[in-house]
Structure formats: C-alpha cells, structure tokens
Design goal:
Blueprint lengths: L22 E2 L5 E7 L18 E2 L15 H8 L2 E4 L2 E5 L4 H8 L30 E2 L11 E4 L4 E5 L4 E4 L15 E3 L12 E2 L3 E4 L14 E4 L7 H5 L3 E2 L7 E5 L10 E5 L1 E5 L2 E4 L11 E4 L4 E12 L6 E8 L2 H10 L6
Helix pairs in contact: 1-2, 2-4
Length: 344
C-alpha cells in the first residue's frame, strides 16, 4: 500500500460489491455470502446488554490463552472474519491462516505513523475510579477530538487510526447478531458545528469470527473501513498512530452517556495490570466510551480499545476497574489484513 494518490482495491467485499453473492477479493480470498442481515434495534442509550451495567467479578471470564500462544489451526479459525457491508454478511470461506502466520511470526508490534495532529480541517458515579477528573472537549472539530466519532443508536465511540480506517469494539456492532447503526459522526458535538465532517456509515465493518457475544472479551475489536476515495476522511479528521506500550500516562476521548449526548469528554489514567489480551486500567469510563482508542500521551499512539467495566464486592472497599483490549500483534495484523491500513 502507498500514499501516492491511487485508490487501492478494498480487501474484501465493499458496498459496490454487496449483491448478496459470493465474492473474491483483491488478494484472491473467497468470501461466502451468509445472507441479508436483519439488524437488531437497540435502546437509544445502551448497546443491548453490554453497556447497561458494570459486570460483577463473579461473571468475569478468565482470560483465554493469549492468541499468540494458540496453535496455527486454532488461531486461524478464531480469526476467520465476518464482514457486514451493504446489508449483507460475508464470511471468509477458509480459516485465516495468512493472518495467523503473521501474528505467530511477529516479534513485537511495529509502530504505525504518528497522528496527523494539526492537519484536521476544521455515568454513573460507580463507573468513576477515584475523583471524576473528566473534562469536556470544547472544540472536537480539531485534533485530537476530530479523530473520534459518536456512533448513534449504539452510543459508542470509534477512533481513526489511518486515512480510511477506524478502530472500535466488536460489542458495539454484534451480540448474537448484527446491531443496527444509524450514523457515525466524527467530531460530533451538541454545539455547532454538530457534525463538522458529516454523518455516514462505514463502507465495511469486519470482526474476528471468535466474537459472538459479551464474554468473548479477548476478541472485542472491530475494523471500520471508510471509502478510500479522495478526499479521504482521515485527511480531514487526522488520525492516531498505534503501538504496544503498557507504561506511562494514557488518555481516552469518548462520548459518555451520563453527559449531554453527543458531547466529547477526555479522561486520563494508567494501565494497572496486563491480563492476557487485555489491559486493566483506572481511566474513568462510562457507557458510551466503549470502542474508543486509549492512547499514550507522548506519541498519540493507541495502545488499547476500550472494552468493558468490572467490580469485585468481595473486597473492602469494593474494587472497580475498567478494561481495554490491548493493542498487540493480533490486532495489528487483523487490521492490516482487513483494512486499507496503516496507509491507504
């Protein structure tokens, strides 16, 4: 892939191909059309059951084996993606051995380019850990706010990590069936301009096949791909880099549902533990923040995708913590395979 100005072929069926028929993509992989999708409608405030309540540690699924420790066959089947585009679901016909080999052969995670920065064109108390230090982003049409989007209907957040690619949480789109989306609005705000870059849906949405419903937290990530035509969305919004980094001060920008919707709020904190494919952290998270990239302050690289919230009342005082799906070779290679990323 390059940044020379040519429009690359999308790596999988896109809206122009969404006829409900099998499809061979630009890399020669065969996709099976599962059928037309009947989308679930969800509450205006919450994403099905996933965003309604913080979960008790009694329901906490122990982390599965790190994907990087699985056998080639196991990992390839877990990765075999499902893709929603144009109202149809597609599944890759074969297990994804190509991406599995990339993950198992990766030593460390390459850093992707830093954000474009200035190139932008224009809860409830129990979810708070310690003092509530969140502050509103007054001008989300400028970076870094511009690179974060409000997902209407679900009330989730997505974050741009490339010229045409955004990350989000899988649970924002799928819970034993696809969840309806109304619009994605980068830099959304209750104050004018309310949609500085317009409102639209992703051209394609790809999830690892291992994600089916809450509980599959190791696989809670989604690739949102927007048309790579010119002008590209990322050239307007800016985008974050990515990298694997446990240490240091972290920041998250999201659209929490305990504040006027949609309004952006920024919060900071640290990762407190690394649990398999997840990072536990102490950033203040409210339903609506799910899907947002958690980035390192020094280099604007996303190190995790906000996923879930937990409590353990067997301790005194009750322990609360939040979790993000860590950025590692699994997410890196999945996004590289199923999006025009890191550069289109």
């Amino acid at each position: 892939m390059n940044d020379s100005g040519s429009t690359p072929a999308m790596l999988g069926p896109t809206s122009k191909d969404a006829t409900g028929e099998d499809f061979t993509d630009a890399k020669g992989r065969h996709w099976i059309a599962v059928g037309e999708v009947s989308l679930k409608e969800v509450n205006e405030i919450d994403v099905a059951e996933t965003e309604q309540e913080r979960r008790s540690v009694e329901d906490y699924p122990p982390p599965g084996p790190d994907p990087r420790t699985m056998s080639r066959e196991q990992l390839a089947e877990k990765l075999r993606p499902r893709r929603l585009v144009g109202g149809y679901e597609y599944r890759l016909e074969e297990p994804d051995f190509e991406t599995a080999d990339l993950i198992l052969g990766t030593e460390g995670v390459p850093n992707t380019p830093e954000s474009l920065g200035g190139k932008s064109a224009f809860a409830r108390p129990k979810y708070i850990i310690g003092p509530d230090d969140r502050r509103r982003v007054d001008n989300p049409r400028f970076f870094p706010g511009s690179a974060n989007a409000h997902l209407a209907t679900q009330n989730c957040t997505a974050t741009m990590i490339g010229p045409s690619t955004a990350l989000c949480a899988a649970h924002c789109f799928y819970n034993d069936g696809w969840i309806s989306s109304r619009s994605i609005t980068f830099g959304a705000n209750t104050n004018a301009p309310t949609a500085p870059f317009g409102s639209f849906l992703a051209d394609s949405l790809t999830l690892p096949g291992a994600w089916n419903h809450p509980g599959d937290w190791d696989w809670d990530f989604a690739v949102l791909e927007f048309s790579p035509s010119r002008p590209r969305l990322g050239d307007q919004t800016g985008w974050f880099g990515t990298g694997e980094n446990f240490n240091g001060w972290k920041t998250c920008i999201g659209y929490p549902t305990d504040k006027p919707v949609p309004s952006q709020w920024i919060k900071g904190g640290t990762f407190t533990a690394s649990v398999g494919a997840r990072y536990q952290h102490n950033l203040d998270i409210i339903p609506g923040d799910s899907g947002a990239g958690i980035y390192h302050n020094d280099d604007n690289r996303c190190n995790a995708i906000q996923s879930s919230q937990w409590f353990d009342n067997s301790t005194t005082p009750t322990r609360f913590w939040n979790e993000g799906r860590r950025w590692d070779s699994t997410t890196y290679n999945f996004f590289h395979t199923y999006g025009n990323w890191p550069r289109a």
